[in-house]
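WARN retry 2 of 3 for item q-0093 after timeout on previous attempt; input resubmitted unchanged.
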Amino acid sequence: MHPYHRFVSETARLVRDARHLPLGGLPFTPRPALATDAPRVLIFSPHPDDECIVGALALRLLRQAKMRIVDVAVTQGSNKERQAGRLAELRGACAFLGFEVLTTAPGGLERISAATRTADPEHWHAAVSVIADILARERPRVVFCPHEADSNSTHIGTHFLVMDALKNLPANFECAVIETEFWGQMASPNLMIELSVADVADLLAGLSFHAGEVRRNPFHLRMPAWLQDNVRRGAELVCGQGGAAPDFTFATLYRLRQWKNGRLENVFEGGKEISAAENPGGILHLVH
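OK item q-0093 returned
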């Protein structure tokens, strides 16, 4: 028996024991006081629960940069019998984290995929109009959406839905666009965001409010391992090949660009890492 056996066995034990932790029903985290004109951040979530999975930077923008975080529930899942329940779970998760919620349509938008974009342009254009109206009304400083190869069909569809909606806005519309990953890894992330233990714990607790989903598949208990693996990947893909890895335990990877002149534009060369001690709002000063 060597020391690494204990390390692995203790990790397995903690995950096994965590299956008995409560799902939702937790007291809400304190929300910082926000100015009435606080900059808005919109998270375009393909499904209820994505706001917690990719929400590390959004949570830090709320707490450290005092920005207003609004989750846009693009869909409420494809199972119609679960849509009302998933929306209720989403509202609980967002209330716990301090996020606001916007819905797109009763039951959410339907058939959001690249295939629908090609095969049913009338349905697609109607969905794009819904998202464009939200963007025009909310005037976000920052938009989160999945990257174009995030494997899941609704995640990929949501990427193109947001991109097409941005193209429908006036030419002078500008915002930061932060692409997220979960089902499929980005080949070229340029931003690594460290999470503290408290940040990770709160994201997992928020995810536990999606009780119907995590009972089926307890992916909230596997999320810390994914966040750890992001440090490994980010050390090479964001910080540069062959360099020393940052002393992070948990991180989420993103790709930051800006929407300007009717298209996505880079805002810096290479990659950047933001420690838990830094105010992540500073990175947005690079977006003109």
